[in-house]
Design brief:
single chain; alpha/beta; about 400 residues
């Protein structure tokens, strides 16, 4: 690399590693901050076996997690099967100057800080953890049984459950009683009591600054072919990623319309969306194939929208299209204009599939994650005692 005055500048290569399971905007924000500390960002991802041993079974497979991280706009390289404990040899092998991690702590199954070696060698830097989101929190949301938060008026506080949710509820009650007996908490990612100061979840506060940080801010060029897609894009996953990658191949500039929470709940039901509109905006903006997001896009694609964004093509995946109010086809306008295409990404995974994985396998993960949090609390309390002792001289 070169400075503007012609002098040589060493390329700074930054290393991050982790599980990156259910990759969310918190992960993306951490990687964004890490990339800002250097020129190239190299991300190591642990395999399924290492994660299961140290943390619990992941929701996404290692191949899915490798693909998801490659799809984040700030990532330059991905290293598969990265060691769970970060070593100096790993940094040197990939020509990285230092390692970056959030200001929480990651422990092995034996309670060892996975970054202790790079910390001791002064090749470690920290960035701020994104408040308001964690994988544990998202799991908790998926396991909530009610849809109260989408109701309004006299129905706002009523509870509605279907047969499937009732069956899940019975399993959860059995598990929650065990969880409460060991931790004093049974709210699965929704409770602030008995929570680790690092992985416990606090309220997410969306700001315009955060959206600006995630957006590349580039307008389309006059010659760009503009593609528009719309949907919920809830719990952003590999199915979404593959669809957006495919849609982008049909143009130069990809705009994603995100439906509001009540609209998503109307056509999906249950307790969807799992992530609110602000969170879904950041998750989609972090994708390297996306150029712009329409926040709260109308369910039906209108002529005004087509003309305002100068849309050349509207794409939709292979999932069923629910009619709009009045049994209207939401894609009638682009179809009439000859600007509509059904796209097959080759990946059939849906948000519902991810939720099913959670329901079938996540109880074991949560039990092990609870043990992990207890270890973190012990380490945190020990650190606080050391700080107090140092202040007291």
């Amino acid at each position: 690399m070169e400075h503007v005055n012609g002098s040589a500048e060493k390329e700074i290569r930054v290393w991050c590693d982790g599980c990156y399971d259910m990759v969310h905007f918190g992960h993306a924000n951490s990687l964004r901050q890490a990339k800002a500390l250097g020129h190239k960002l190299i991300v190591g991802i642990h395999n399924d076996e290492a994660i299961t041993k140290n943390k619990g079974p992941p929701v996404f497979t290692q191949e899915e997690r490798y693909k998801m991280v490659r799809g984040i706009k700030w990532v330059d390289e991905v290293v598969e099967d990265a060691p769970y404990v970060t070593t100096l040899e790993t940094l040197d092998q990939h020509n990285c100057d230092f390692c970056v991690h959030g200001d929480d702590i990651t422990l092995t199954a034996d309670g060892v800080d996975t970054y202790h070696l790079v910390k001791e060698a002064n090749r470690y830097k920290e960035v701020s953890r994104t408040a308001g989101v964690s994988t544990t929190d998202l799991v908790g949301r998926m396991l909530l049984m009610t849809r109260d938060h989408f109701k309004q008026g006299d129905q706002e506080y009523s509870v509605e459950k279907d047969e499937k949710l009732e069956a899940i509820s019975k399993l959860l009650k059995q598990y929650e009683s065990k969880l409460k007996s060991t931790t004093g908490s049974s709210k699965l990612g929704q409770d602030h009591s008995a929570r680790s100061p690092w992985t416990g979840c606090s309220q997410f506060l969306p700001t315009t600054q955060k959206i600006i940080q995630f957006s590349d801010g580039k307008a389309p060029k006059p010659t760009d072919k503009i593609v528009y897609v719309a949907g919920a894009f809830d719990l952003f996953h590999v199915g979404h990623l593959d669809f957006l990658e495919k849609a982008k191949t049909y143009g130069d500039y990809l705009i994603v319309g995100l439906h509001t929470d009540p609209v998503v709940n109307e056509y999906k039901g249950g307790n969807y969306p799992i992530m609110n509109l602000h969170e879904r905006v950041l998750s989609v903006l972090a994708c390297k194939y996306v150029n712009e997001v329409v926040i709260g896009a109308s369910y039906s694609v209108t002529k005004d929208l087509m003309e305002h964004f100068n849309v050349d093509l509207v794409c939709h995946g292979q999932t069923p299209i629910a009619p709009d109010v009045g049994n209207i086809d939401p894609y009638a306008v682009p179809k009439q204009m000859g600007k509509f295409m059904l796209v097959d990404s080759g990946n059939p995974i849906t948000t519902e599939d991810i939720v099913d994985r959670i329901i079938r396998h996540r109880l074991e993960y949560e039990a092990r994650n609870t043990k992990k949090e207890k270890k973190e609390i012990e380490v945190y309390e020990a650190m606080q005692r050391v700080k107090i002792a140092e202040k007291c001289g």
